[in-house]
Fold this protein.
Amino acid sequence: MTATVGGRVRSTARPGVVTSRIVANLLLVLIGVAFIVPMLWVLYASIEEGPGLAVSIPTSASFENFRSVLNTDTTYRPILNGIYLSGGATLITVVCAVLAAYPLSRHKMRFNRPFLMTILFSTGLPITAVMVPVYGLFVQLDLIDSVAGTTLFMATTGLPFAIWLMKNFMDGVPIDLEEAAWVDGASGMKALWHIVLPLMWPGVAVVAIFTFIRLWGEFFIPFMLLLSPDLQPASVTIFTFFGQYGGVNYGRLAAFSVMYSLPVVALYILLSRKLGGAFAFGGALKG
């Protein structure tokens, strides 16, 4: 709080409040530094010759690390494989999450709460706990080394969290708009496509970004289900920069990490326009 005394603005906050603000700001600064320092190391090491683990400004910039990793086998093919796996799985997840969340949000049934609790439990289930039976199932169905099969399984792992998020976003859309459409003869799918989804695109974008980021960094599933090196995504091939006897080429690893993060940044920029708009419900109910 502030007060004007003799033409001067003075703070009237109590000393305890000021101290709490200073401590909170210091903690936020420390958390920010903890995030920024690893990012600075990646950027500096990617343009430095022979970098180590210390964070230091390069004395001379060089793009030799990027030239050594920018080729088909090291970067282009693994990243394209990752985009195909993660992008396809994200698309399947978002579509299935919308279709699953719609009846959960609009129809009050006695099984809604147990079903949602089951979904919530599934989000906390570690993937390592189910990989052994899944691997056996894939062997029985002859789906090992299948990109389509791996994409479908990755989509199923992201589905519980996506349904949970999508259902909560969908609850915020007033049902009055759909009831008006139903009176005019619209079906449930038409109401979902033409009324509900246009009003909750920011929520759909959030679900898509969260799902893609989680699947983009997924290591264990493609490592277990894809055996051919030509089919493995960048999240698996990044381990080729770690030597057999503990040696690590930090410069090439940092340059590859910069390239590895670009698809996620591009997706965020692509969907940022959807994220920037709030749910426009206010004017929708007028009239």
About this structure: The first strand starts at residue 2 and ends at 5. The beta strands are 2-5, 8-11.
